[in-house]
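I am writing to request your help with a piece of structural work I have in hand. Thank you for your consideration; the sequence and its tokens are set out here:
=====
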Amino acid sequence: YEIVVSDWSSDVCSSDLAREYLVFALGPETYGIDLLKVQEIRGYDAVTRIAGTPEFIKGVINLRGAIVPVVDLRIRFSTGAIDYGAQTVVIVLNVSQRTVGVVVDGVSDVIALGPDEIHPKPDMGAVDTSFMTGLGPYEEGMVILLDIERLMCSPDMALIDDSLALAG
């Protein structure tokens, strides 16, 4: 299946307003990313593997004539055994003027969280939390809010040229 997300922009941009997040699963954890970064959601299809890329970069797909790199966030975050099933999807993102796909276990919701609902990211000592923007309430637990732009532009991802990241 395919869901195209378009025209999700708001006429008013203020830090006091709730932001919308796309909620998805990676293993047992629930994550959220800024809905404005999402271009579309696609069912997982085979990708073309590129030799010499890190294990978490699954390869590339042809998205209406554009070659798009695909990252498996389950491998990147070491969430355990990977099973590509009917719920597995690729979230196509626009980050730093590039299109990138991320493989997740499934999407479940779009939620709106106001600034007063978002808890600061925890200080985990040696654990890198730099890709988190915070934690928000979701169902009976919490959703981990990701700074997907920062994650995709990180040096270990090697997906976004530094000059593009600085320009965006």
